[in-house]
Amino acid sequence: MSGEPHHSHAFSADLGDGTYRNPVLPADWSDPDVVRVGADFYLTASSFGRVAGLPLLHSRDLVNWTLVGHALDRLEPAEAFAAPRHDCGVWAPSIRHHDGRFWIFWGDPDHGVYQINSPSIEGPWTRPHLLKAGKGLIDACPLWDEESGEAYLVHAWAKSRSGVKNRLTGHRMSPDATALLDEGKTIVDADRIPGWFTLEGPKLYRHDGWFWILAPAGGVETGWQGALRAREFLGPYEERIVLEQGATDINGPHQGGWVRTASGEDWFLHFQQQGAYGRLVHLQPMRWDETGWPVMGDEGTPVRVHRKPELPNQERSAPATDDDFPGGRFGPQWQWTANPGAGWVREHPGDGLHLACVRGADPYDLRKLPHVLTQRLPALPCTVEVELALDAAQQAGARAGLAVLGDSFSWIGLERGSDGRVHLVHRFAESVAERERDAALPRPAADSRARLRIEVGAGARCRFLADTGEGFQESGPVFAATPWRWVGALLGLFGAAPEGEGAAGTAMFTEFRIRA
Predict the structure, then answer these.
(1) Which of 14, 31, 108, 436 is catalytic?
(2) What is the pTM of this model?
(3) What residue ranges of the chain have pLDDT lower than 50?
(4) DSSP H/E element including 172
């Protein structure tokens, strides 16, 4: 379900003078991978338990990106994702173009390695094919070797599921990517590399007669980017650190993908973990030294500002954030917190999002609701606003609002009381709390509508405000947003109600805006 998005330039990394500033994607586009097809670059990222999954971003200059859709309509197995599983699902995908088709591989830590493919980035994409079943299989990447005609797969391991980490497993794969041709072999055991730990996120390439694996180690927040090479796929591999924080303020720097432009320039996109904002995407220049090893950034340390790639000028752009919800449809920037259910959205001829106040046994903990519609929290100071109205058919206990959602959460919105009156409410829950409590005392909302605002300051500190007809008024104390385990904090819209008989009513959202 998608509407026409508003493209914001406020979050573009393009400085307009032939240079760019990192991060090029200042939001949680976790574990990015990139591929070039002709003059076009396409990027995908982890989507974990959110739906639609596998976001698809497009650029022609590697700096200005737009979100063009998703490759995964629903998570499978469907029953496993009927409720939120924020740190499960799609981990660290790889995107490739081979034999006239786009291919995306990923590891689901609880189910195994999947792949989907399509003749076009717009689809139709195949249903997920389980290429290798098992626990703890993550960060999968294929390679079709044009020199030999052979196909390969490499993946890492999640210790939380398998008891194994810090090693990479390689397989020979059928060229149609429907089957693995062997039992697999450990091709890199980083326990044998002094000082290396938590080797993961491998991306597999062929270059200059070598098999190359670009993979990070040392942990998400404090580690480095490594390169490994071997003459044969099964090894032995030699290793080198090719990008590390050094004296910069860019921690990590963590996993990503290498891409070469049509003119032969090399670039590397990776992420940086930034607390509640999640994993922000950076672009690094890349070259090959006289010994044949890659050199990333400024002689191995990340750049903050750099000249843009030598590519045709592109209009400044960034993934959409704003939405008028034309025809009741929402844009591709929005994702549910689980596989969606029928009747959650009510389409209509005009603008505005009509969300059903879905009944549930525990509507008081947003972390457990599958019907929260979310988008990424920008990693820049910004103001978020939306208009909310409740319909006259709203039943007692029904509520709806605008939320900042993570391991802890806070929301501001409207709730219909047992007396039929509508109140403005502001609620929150700490990470250890099992249900919400008031952040401010409820107050009447006479005409069942309110303009809601969140002012996001430095460090993702959020001030909540609302206008019920007398101008914006602050509500409650500042709330410090928090991430989930692997996911940055999210902005969310929702409607919910306690269990009962019949429809609980509708929450109507209009004019969603984010302003830097």
Answers:
(1) 31
(2) 0.96
(3) 1-7
(4) strand 167-173
